[in-house]
C-alpha cells in the first residue's frame, strides 16, 4: 500500500507529489541545518559529550545486514500491527520530542496533523510547546510522554489532563531526570530558549506554582529533576493512569524484567538518541538482549538511530514490535511544516514496505533474527 507512493513519484516526479524534499531522508539534516537558527539546529541534532553514542547508534545498524530470501511467494507487505492495545497501520510512531516550535511555528500541531493523516500515533512530550489540549484537537491516535515531576499533585494533574484529552497510552521517560552534558548547547548557552516556548504546559497547569520572581527555568529544573525515583514508585503511576504504560530508556535485561514485575505493559529500548549518557551502549545492540530477556511478557518498542525503512526492518527483526522516530521528522518539520513531516513518514513507510517484500518477507510478522547477518567488528 505505502509502496504505491514509489510509483506515484516515478510517474509524476517527487516535486508534484510532495514538497521538493529529497527522497533520501539522510539528506534532510543538512538541508534543515541551512534553514534553522544555528542554536536550534545544534540542540536538535546534538547529542551528549563527544557524540560517541549517537555515532554508535548508527554503526550498530550498519553492522547488521538484511539477508534477502527469494521465491517465497511474497504477495503483500502487511505492515499492520497491534501495539499496547492499539491497531497501527505500520510499526511506526512519532517519538516524543519537546519544544517543536523551535523548528517551526506550528510545532506539535503540524506534527499531529501529519501523523493523523497516516493514522500513526504521535507521542506528545511533556515539554511540548503547544498544550496537550490544543494538540489533541488536531491529532489522531495520541499517546502522552511523561517527564515525572517530583510534585505528586502536578504529576496527577498531567495524567488527568492527558486522559481527559484522549491520550490513550503513557510513555514514562526515565533517562532524562536532568539534561546530560551537551557541549553544543553549553557553548550556545541555549537552555533559556525554554522561557520562550518550552514550558507553557506547566505554567498553564492549575497545580503549577512558582515563587514570585523565581526564574521559570530554575523552577522547571527543580520540579522535573526527580532523581530519587525507584521501581517502587511505579505503583503510583498505575494508580493514577488507567491505560497502558511503557517505560522509555530501558537498555538492560534486569531493568526490563523489573518493568515486567512492576506490571508495566511495554518498554522502549532507547538511549534518547545518544543525548544522555555519552559512551552508553548502542540502542540496537541492547535491543536483542533485552527482547530475549522478556520474551512475550511485555511489549518491546525501540528508538535511537532509525533513519530509513531498512533500519525499521532491522529493529523489528531484533525483537521490537514497533519503532519510534526522533530527529528525522523534526528535520521534515523544520523544512516544510506538516507537509515536511508527512514527506518523511511516507518515504520511510514506502521504503520499509519495499525492503520487507524484496527481502522475502510477507509482512512484518515474518521477520526474525534469521533475517539478519551480523558482520564481525
Ligand atoms: C530535540 C529533541 C528533543 C527531545 N525531547 C524529548 C522529550 O521531550 N521527551 C522524551 O522522552 N524524549 C525526547 N527526545 C528523545 C526522543 O524521544 C528519542 O528517544 C530520540 O530522538 C530517538 O533517537 P533519534 O533522534 O536518533 O531517532 C528528544 C529528542 C530530540 C532530538
Ligand atoms: C527541554 C526538555 C527536555 C527535552 C529532551 O528530552 C532532550 O532535549 O533530549
UniProtKB/TrEMBL annotation:
Pfam families: FMN_dh. Residues 17-377 form the FMN hydroxy acid dehydrogenase domain. Keywords: Oxidoreductase. Its cofactor is FMN. Transmembrane segments: none annotated. Belongs to the FMN-dependent alpha-hydroxy acid dehydrogenase family. This is Lactate 2-monooxygenase.
Amino acid at each position: 500500500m505505502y509502496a504505491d507512493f514509489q510509483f506515484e513519484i516515478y510517474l509524476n516526479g517527487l516535486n508534484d507529489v510532495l514538497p521538493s524534499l529529497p527522497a533520501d531522508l539522510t539528506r534532510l539534516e543538512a538541508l534543515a541545518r541551512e534553514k534553522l537558527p544555528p542554536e536550534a539546529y545544534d540542540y536538535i541534532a546534538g547529542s551528549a559529550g563527544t557524540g560517541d553514542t549517537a555515532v554508535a547508534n548508527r554503526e550498530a545498524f550498519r553492522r547488521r545486514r538484511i539477508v534477502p530470501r527469494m521465491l517465497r511467494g511474497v504477495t503483500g507487505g502487511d505492515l499492520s500491527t497491534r501495539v499496547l492495545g492499539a491497531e497501527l497501520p505500520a510499526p511506526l510512531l512519532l517519538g516524543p520530542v519537546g519544544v517543536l516550535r523551535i523548528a517551526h511555528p506550528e510545532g506539535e500541531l503540524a506534527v499531529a496533523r501529519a501523523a493523523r493523516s497516516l493514522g500513526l500515533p504521535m507521542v506528545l512530550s511533556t515539554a511540548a510547546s503547544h498544550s496537550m489540549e490544543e494538540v489533541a484537537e488536531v491529532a489522531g491516535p495520541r499517546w502522552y510522554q511523561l517527564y515525572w515531576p517530583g510534585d505528586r499533585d502536578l504529576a496527577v494533574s498531567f495524567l488527568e489532563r492527558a486522559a481527559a484529552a484522549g491520550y490513550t497510552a503513557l510513555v514514562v521517560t526515565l533517562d532524562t531526570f536532568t539534561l546530560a552534558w551537551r557541549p553544543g548547547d553549553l557553548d550556545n548557552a541555549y537552555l533559556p530558549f525554554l522561557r520562550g516556548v518550552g514550558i507553557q504546559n506547566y505554567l498553564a497547569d492549575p497545580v503549577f506554582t512558582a515563587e514570585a520572581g523565581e526564574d521559570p527555568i530554575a523552577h522547571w529544573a527543580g520540579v522535573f529533576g526527580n532523581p530519587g525515583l525507584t521501581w517502587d514508585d511505579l505503583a503510583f503511576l498505575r494508580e493514577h493512569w488507567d491505560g497502558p504504560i511503557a517505560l522509555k530508556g530501558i537498555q538492560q535485561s534486569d531493568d526490563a524484567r523489573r518493568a515486567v514485575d512492576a506490571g508495566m505493559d511495554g518498554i522502549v529500548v532507547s538511549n534518547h538518541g545518544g543525548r544522555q549518557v555519552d559512551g552508553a551502549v548502542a540502542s540496537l545492540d541492547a535491543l536483542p538482549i533485552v527482547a530475549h530477556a522478556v520474551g512475550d511478557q511485555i511489549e518491546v518498542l525501540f528508538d535511537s538511530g532509525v533513519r530509513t525503512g531498512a533500519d525499521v526492518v532491522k529493529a523489528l527483526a531484533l525483537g521490537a514490535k514497533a519503532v519510534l522516530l526522533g530527529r528525522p521528522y523534526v528535520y521534515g518539520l523544520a523544512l516544510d511544516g506538516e507537509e515536511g513531516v508527512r514527506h518523511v513518514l511516507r518515504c520511510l513507510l514506502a521504503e520499509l514496505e519495499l525492503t520487507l517484500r524484496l527481502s522475502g518477507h510477507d509482512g512484518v510478522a515474518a521477520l526474525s533474527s534469521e533475517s539478519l547477518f551480523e558482520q564481525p567488528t
